[in-house]
Amino acid sequence: MAKYIKFHELQQQLKTNPMTIGISTQMDMLQERYGEKYLSVSESLLKLLEDLGYNTFEQAKHYMVDYIKGMMKFLQKGSYSNGTYEEIQEAVYDNEEKMLNIYLPGLILAHAVTILVYTKCHLFFNEFLNKLKPGAAGVDVGFGEGFYLLEILENIKDSKCYGFDISTHSLKFAPRLFKQAGIDEKRYSLSIGDIRKKLPLDDNSMDFAVIAEVIEHITNPEDALSELARVLKKDGLLFLSTVKDSNHMDHITNFPSSEYVEEMIEKAGFKVMAKSIQRNQDDFPDSKDISVGLAYVCRKI
Ligand SMILES: C[S@@+](CC[C@H](N)C(=O)[O-])C[C@H]1O[C@@H](n2cnc3c(N)ncnc32)[C@H](O)[C@@H]1O
After folding, report:
1. Cβ count near 79 (within 10 Å)
2. Is residue 127 part of a domain?
């Protein structure tokens, strides 16, 4: 186990604090469930985060504070109640301190240590990434910290990636991550872009598309899916992930059921090929946290 030093160091630290001890339990469960692949992904994310100058234990504490605040608010009010899109944009996406110190490093951490997020990565690795061909071109909207783009760039030879995000801070953060990981900057193009509008991409031009943890942030998820169907080639692959009953500071749309999400995807012109539905209470039956993580791999028909 000496191979996974960052992982074990962080786990020891998490056990010393009552607020973070549950994350350590999740890391044990993920290790048991997904073995060596999970350990190596988690270790390399934790290493990248530290190489970028972040303290993973401090990030874990920030992550838990925000997570608990969001969930308490949701459970008390019965809705996300985070304000309008414009209010959220000002408070979060345009807020340099929040994005660079908490939100974006927190997303990397969440992929490395939480069941809700890593379970979606497992589907991404096994049903999406391994189906992409060398030289494939694709788009990630709301790429945020850049986790999914990084995995594609590292694993799919000669792939070309276009990324769009509403936040200038994502545009600063993700290239730092890619540089740290040794990715050639000619292989990707990142721009400010808004999935509520038309993307600057031609019809039927992309081999793949990713929209991960974004449709719950907008009021018109159906239109975003239609826009991705427009830019994807026939048979092009889509990876979509989202949540239900799981609040964060910038969530707007809650979905009534996983069936509702699946129907919305199919109405936009996709066939669902594989999915993952992860209920927090299946793993932690005594928890009040009713979050459900949803992920889908789809083909444009
Ligand atoms: C929760 S993060 C997801 C990041 C990444 N896709 C992941 O799964 O880890 C949501 C991202 O969506 C971006 N975003 C929010 N509204 C957007 C919009 N209308 N168009 C494009 N990006 C948007 C935010 O700036 C943020 O980076």
Report:
1. 12
2. no
